[in-house]
Amino acid sequence: MAEFPEGFLWGGATAANQIEGGYQEDGRGLSIADALPGGKQRFAIVNQPDFDWTIDEDKYTYPNHQGIDFYHHYKEDIALFAEMGFKCYRFSIAWSRIFPNGDETQPNEAGLKFYDRVIDECLAHDIQPIVTISHYELPLNLAQRYGGWKNSYLVEFYTNFARTVLTRYADKVKYWMTFNEINSAAQFPVMGQGMVPATGANDKKNVFQAWHNQFVASAKAVKIAHDLKKDLKVGCMIIYATSYSYDANPVNQLANLQHNQDFNFFCADVQVRGEYPAYTKRLLAEYGLTFADLKTTDGELALIKQNPVDYVGFSYYMSTAVETTGATTDQVAGNLMGGVKNPFLKASEWGWQIDPTGLRIALNELYDRYQKPLFVVENGLGAIDQPDKNHYVTDDYRIDYLKAHIQAMAGAIADGVDLMGYTPWGCIDLVSASTGEMSKRYGFIYVDLDDAGNGTLARYPKKSFYWYQDVIKNNGLEKPNKDSEQA
Question: Active site annotated at which positions (predicted)?
Answer without folding.
Answer: 378
